[in-house]
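Service request form, structural biology core

Requester: graduate student, group of Dr. S.
Request type: structure prediction, single chain
Budget code: on file
Notes: please return the result as structure tokens.

Sequence provided:
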Amino acid sequence: MESQPLPLDGITVVAVEQAVAAPFATRQLADLGARVIKVERIDGGDFARGYDSAAGGLASHFVWCNRGKESIALDLKDPRGVAVVRQLIAGADVFVQNLAHGAAARLGLDAATLCAAHPRLVAVDISGYGPSGPYAGKRAYDMLVQCEAGLVSVTGTPGQPVKAGIPAADIAAAMYAFSGVLAALVRRGVSGRGGPVEVSMLDALAEWMGHPLHHAMHGGTPPARTGLAHAVIAPYDAYPTADGGRVLLSVQNDREWRRLAEQVIGRPELGTDPDFATNAARVENRERTDALVGKALGGLGADEAVVLLERAGVACARLRDVQQLAEHPQLAARERWREVGSPVGPLRALLPPITLPGGGEAPMGDVPALGEHTEALLRAVGMADVEIAALRRDGVVA
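Core staff response, request fulfilled:
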């Protein structure tokens, strides 16, 4: 059977992007076969390039969000730089930007302006708080939006709220921008017209806060912070094992509790004991419940505990650190790792989560150097050597 092409093969995306939200969105498009042209500043490029040097000398955020793209470095404070972007957009299907509030509009690169000029274009504006309202012009970094969206209030321990360890607000906005582009392209296939797409980090993360939000709005109280435990389920936590590991288990119903009591704790009578027989009773007696589970698992190694819990039909997991994730046996068994090229040589990278059986594999292109494709892209829009030389001489391109 002939392999299907990647779904976005033939789609061209131009992105004036930085940090995480827009770059992660456009990387998803590249993974599905789109050509992504990344417009960067001439003085250092996307500022995420300078976040750290952990990935073999490159910034880990940048490597994660920017593989498979072409980089052109332009000075958008110069009208000639903006003119180049306009020429690239004229041949594109999708435009994405996450500049500071008002900056795209001042350059004429906001979604409404571009879609009026190019009816088939899908143009995405990603912002922190949306285009209007009292917060529209407020600086929006991931941690700040996590706080404004209430995520920090429900994450952590009873005594200490903490932010998520990943850029949750950026990722949420990125994934809604990604799905918004796909929806708009489907609509264009029917109507022949693209159109604007708006995504804000606050809107995106507020949607992800749906469970605690509805719990608080309709139940009267927000869920308590419980660390790795669950506010309304017990036992549900991570328990130390004899070899220094930690195993997390989750008992979802009373049948599972009876199996846990009999096959792991070794006390089948706990299955009918009124203090533990129901989830409500176990939550009320959480400390005693956890002590029983902790004592049983504390005498086992982590691998031994997982085998025993799985044999009893109790959901469980190892509490792994990031390095252990990199060596996860399931990812290895399913051959999820590939190598991508970069200015510092090959780097390990995961295949994207979307798998399309019967189709081509994600291209997993190189991480670009700043301005690596500037000259080729300028030639592609029809610029002669003398024009390119003048732009370089004047510092408009790099």
